[in-house]
Recover the amino acids of this structure.
């Protein structure tokens, strides 16, 4: 008995959600396109996907009936998720190898994206420990590392609280200012205060957009790559503004 072919409309709607979610999670463009096309190929369709910073255009082509279906979808703003990156990519291979029915594929997809995120308190502690480690790595003493740990915890906590309701740029300026201001307490002690100040804001560096932007440009997705690099550069500028405000306030203690 011949297997029933999935509807081009149903498949288009799923691929649109799948690919936009991957882009929102901070996955580089070529991986999103490869994974999406891999799923489409498993159902005997062809796909053309054009990705931009805020939206993507998807066109599916039925190889048998020569039917086309196009969609334009917005890319949501989501937290960076390496877990979604790996699990959604693995799901595309599972679909291609095992020819999963579309309803099973949707069920597995929903299970992945609905899984509980890492607890914010756990992220807060690990980020603070990582920043304190950077302080030690760059030559700071143990007292400076402890101050950086506390400063990062204050800045990161504020970032977690402000992120849902305020612009990323305002959040980064305020978080960088608070973290560096807390780290400036190292000036009171006989310690490596310059290293403490410099490393207190490293938790804000947008590493994923910077890396993805370079990868996108190298792999030919120039518009998306430059958009990501521009966004990352603006965030770095916001970090510099927050740190500069602190340096302006404590400039007399630095002289």
């Amino acid at each position: 008995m011949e297997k029933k072919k999935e509807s081009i409309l149903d498949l288009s709607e799923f691929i649109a959600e799948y690919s936009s979610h991957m882009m929102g999670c901070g996955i580089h463009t070529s991986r999103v396109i490869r994974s999406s096309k891999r799923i489409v190929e498993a159902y005997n369709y062809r796909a053309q996907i054009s990705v931009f910073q805020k939206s993507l255009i998807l066109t599916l082509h039925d190889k048998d009936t020569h039917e086309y279906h196009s969609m334009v979808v917005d890319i949501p703003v989501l937290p960076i998720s390496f877990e979604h990156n790996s699990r959604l990519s693995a799901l595309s291979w599972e679909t291609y190898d095992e020819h999963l029915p579309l309803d099973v594929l949707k069920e597995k997809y929903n299970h992945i994206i609905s899984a509980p995120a890492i607890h914010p308190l756990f992220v807060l502690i690990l980020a603070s420990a990582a920043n304190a480690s950077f302080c030690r790595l760059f030559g700071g003493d143990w007292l400076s590392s402890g101050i950086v740990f506390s400063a990062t915890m204050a800045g990161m906590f504020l970032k977690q609280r402000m992120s849902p309701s305020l612009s990323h740029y305002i959040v980064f300026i305020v978080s960088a200012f608070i973290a560096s201001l807390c780290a400036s307490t190292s000036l009171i002690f006989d310690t490596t205060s310059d290293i403490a100040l410099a490393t207190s804001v490293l938790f804000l560096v947008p590493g994923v957009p910077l890396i993805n932007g370079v990868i996108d440009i190298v792999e030919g997705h120039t518009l998306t790559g430059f958009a990501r690099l521009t966004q990352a550069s603006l965030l770095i500028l916001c970090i510099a503004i927050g740190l500069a405000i602190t340096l302006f306030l404590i400039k007399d203690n630095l002289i």
